[in-house]
From TrEMBL:
One of its GO terms (biological process) is proteolysis. The lineage of its organism: Bacteria, Bacillati, Bacillota, Clostridia, Candidatus Protoclostridium. Belongs to the peptidase M14 family. This is Peptidase M14 domain-containing protein. Residues 1-274 form the Peptidase M14 domain. The active site is at E242 (proton donor/acceptor). The keyword Flavoprotein does not apply. Keywords: Hydrolase, Metalloprotease, Protease, Zinc.
């Protein structure tokens, strides 16, 4: 189990070790969306985020481990780590709905007290379908609150989506990395062409080679995702990294991170590559 209380504990611990800790906003039910910053404050920056889908809470644990390990490294660019973009969802998937003020509605949506497969936020909106990138046109999208795939009332209708989008717009990072699970695949494409497509494919292939993951071309009907939005609206490289092989099944456990150790150093590899491409 890894929930918001665990992240708060780790935030205090990493701050004592030298990370700069903060928040990019709050969730629907008031939890801070915690971030850690490592490396140079000025110049190029990167965002690494996890925990967007509730049932994929192991990605939050992975991002915290990345930040803790990379505290010991000299980073060529600054990196913001956002381990738990959907803290309400993480709580819901692991502890159930009893603590939520809308528990009855959540039970109706889920059809069961077992929320371990829940992906959405505390209102039944899938954050990774709620960005302004072909919003509402994704394969499998639904317009009504649900455990997964609900697009919301409008792009950035959810406080978690709005917080991440606002932070990204202000920061203008050179690259973002979003952690999801399952599949050991990397996605990078969302309609970019020419030099941008070549740049993004090269970085995705470098990451794939480093991790031993398959690099997937095309958007495969994706829409409304953070990666999609970063590519189409900001024109920056954005990778979605799906950890853990398909021999595993949801609900995942902490033990399922075994074999994913190379991901700990992926942000450093990408930071070096984008810094080199920038002529630094």
């Amino acid at each position: 189990m890894y929930v918001y209380d665990d992240l708060r504990r780790d935030c205090c611990r990493l701050c004592r070790k030298g990370a700069v800790c903060g928040t990019i906003g709050r969730s629907l039910f008031g939890a801070h969306i915690v971030c850690f910053h490592l490396g140079p404050k000025d110049g190029a920056q990167m965002i690494v985020q996890g925990g967007m889908h509730a049932r994929e809470w192991v990605t939050s644990l992975l991002v915290v481990r990345q930040a803790e390990t990379l505290l010991r490294e000299k980073l060529p660019i600054g990196i913001f780590f956002i381990p738990m973009t959907n803290p309400d969802g993480a709580e819901l998937a692991q502890r159930g709905c009893e603590r939520f003020p809308n528990a009855a509605e959540l039970l109706r949506m889920n059809g069961s007290r077992d929320f371990r497969l829940w992906k959405a936020n505390g209102r039944g909106v899938d954050i990774n379908c709620n960005f302004d990138a072909r919003w509402g046109r994704g394969k499998g999208n639904v317009p009504y609150p649900a455990p997964a795939s609900c697009v919301g009332a409008r792009p950035e209708s959810e406080p978690e989506t709005a917080a991440l989008a606002s932070f990204t717009r202000r920061l203008r990072p050179v690259i973002t990395v979003s952690y999801h699970a399952l599949g050991r695949e990397i996605y990078y494409e969302f309609g970019q062409r020419g030099a941008a497509l070549g740049r993004d494919r090269a970085l995705a292939e470098a990451a794939g080679k480093f991790l031993g993951y398959r690099v997937v071309s095309g958007d495969l009907g994706s829409a409304g995702g953070y990666k999609d939005w970063c590519v189409s609206r900001l024109g920056i490289t954005a990778l979605t990294v799906e950890i853990i092989g398909e021999d595993k099944r949801h609900p995942l456990r902490e033990e399922d991170l075994a074999g994913e150790e190379k991901n700990i150093m992926l942000p450093l590899l990408l930071a070096e590559l984008v810094r080199g491409a920038d002529g630094g």
